[in-house]
Structure formats: structure tokens, C-alpha cells
Amino acid sequence: LTSINHKNQQEKTFISNAAHELRTPIAAIRGHIQLVQRHGRDHPEIVDRSIQFINNESARMQTLVNDLLALSRADRGDVKLDYIDLTSLLNETVEEQRAVLKQTINVNIPTKAVVYANADNVQQILSALLDNAGKYSPADSQITVVLSQHGSQYSLSVQNTGPSIPDNQKDQIFERFYRGDQAHNHQVSGTGLGLSIVKQLAELNHIQITVTDLKPQGSRFNLLFNNPENQN
């Protein structure tokens, strides 16, 4: 009963947070629509500004809804695992992110690596980690992706040179809607759901995920894949 009550409270909190996150852009959009209706005819210069604001806020809502749908699918736990070429998937995902991130992405991966996981899930995990690294790293810095083999396991890391994550926040950053001090101080955009989706998808794919610090600053997100031979 304690476990059920705790889960129920988590779901209530999640719904409340989701409603709050959606309420903010909706209120802003309605405010600008009313502004245009009242003053747009006499002050046409406000129309373009309001339209741009509405476009930005609606895009923010779309991102949030997509993240909520991704979490809903992950919560159902319906995922098919198979043998996938991790090297090819990494190269494809990195090239996609290079087109949108300001930072340079360095890659150090072997020519062939096969793991037992869901390709779409792994691609979503890597995209989210690269997007997260881009949000917290200086525009002229580097993001490094490294894939290496350790015995019977593959280890994938995404490293950035942004602010280090305090030890007391390393577990909290994977909670839904949690955003650390750096996000608030630097007005980092996002829904606060990206890393929670990463955590959920990693668990569905039996991937261990950890966070470590880099010196003098930066963070490394580590993914540990099981050797596919151990799954047979």
C-alpha cells in the first residue's frame, strides 16, 4: 500500500506539473491575441511582434506535448529489443545534431559495435544527451562522444564542458520537470523532461546510466550496454 500510494502521489505531481507547464504558454498566447485584437488596428507594429511571440510559445507547447507522449510510451514499457549496429546509429545521430548545435561535436567510436537494444530508443537517448550538452555548454566549446569496449560491455559517453553538476543533484536531474540551478540562472530553454525520458528509455533497454564530473569543469553522461552475446 505504501508503494501504491507513493506511485499515486508521483502521478498526481506529474499531472500537476504538466498542467502548470502548459498553462504558462497558453496564457501568454491568449494575452498576445487579445493585445492584437484591442490595439492591432491602431498600432500595426505590435502585430508582427505578437505573431512571433505566439509562434515561439506554440513551438514550446509542441515540444512539451511531444515529450509527454514520449514519456507515456516509455511508461507503458512496450519496446522490442534486437541486435543493432550502434556505430552506424551514432554516426547518423551525430550528423543530425551537428546541423542544429552551435558546438563542435568530436566523435571517437570503433568501426563496428553491436548491442542488444531498441534502435529508435537509443537514437532518442543520444539526441537528448547531445541536446542537453548543447544547452549547457558555451557556443564555442566542444562536445565529445566516445564509444569503447570494456570486456563484455560497451560504454558510450557524451561529454560537455558546461557547468559541473553538484553531487546532490546527480540523481535529481533525471526526475520529471526537475531543472537545476544552472537552468534557472542562465534561462536555459527546455521542458525539464529530456533527462527523465533518457532515464526511462535506458531502463527499458537495460542500459545503465551514470553522471560523472570532468576537470576543471564539465559533465560526462555514461551509458553502459550489455554484450549481446550475454542475451542469448
In percent, how helical is the residue content? 40-55%
**How are helices and strands ordered from N to C?**
HHEHEEHEEHHEE
DSSP helical segment count: 6
Strands, total number: 7
Strand content: 15-25%
Mean pLDDT value: 81
What does the radius of gyration come to?
Answer: 20 Å
* Low-pLDDT residue spans: none
How many angstroms does the end-to-end distance come to? 37 Å
Envelope shape: globular
Structural class: alpha+beta
Structural account:
This protein is α+β, with helices and mostly antiparallel strands. Helices cover 50% and strands 19% of the residues. The chain is built from six helices and seven strands. The protein has a five-stranded mixed β-sheet. A two-stranded antiparallel sheet has the order 1-3. A hairpin with a 2-residue loop joins strand 4 and strand 5 (153-160). Helix 2 runs parallel beside helix 6 (194-204), helix 3 (86-98) packs parallel to helix 4 and helix 4 (119-136) packs antiparallel against helix 6. The chain is globular, with a radius of gyration of 20 Å. The model has no long low-confidence stretch (mean pLDDT 81).
Tell me the layout of helices and strands.
Blueprint: H1 2-39, H2 45-76, E1 82-85, H3 86-98, E2 104-108, E3 114-117, H4 119-136, E4 142-150, E5 153-160, H5 181-185, H6 194-204, E6 208-213, E7 219-226
Parallel strand pairs: 2-4
Antiparallel strand pairs: 1-3, 4-5, 5-7, 6-7
Helix pairs in contact: 1-2, 2-6, 3-4, 4-6
Brief characterization of the structure:
This protein has 232 residues and is an alpha+beta fold. The chain has six helices and seven strands.
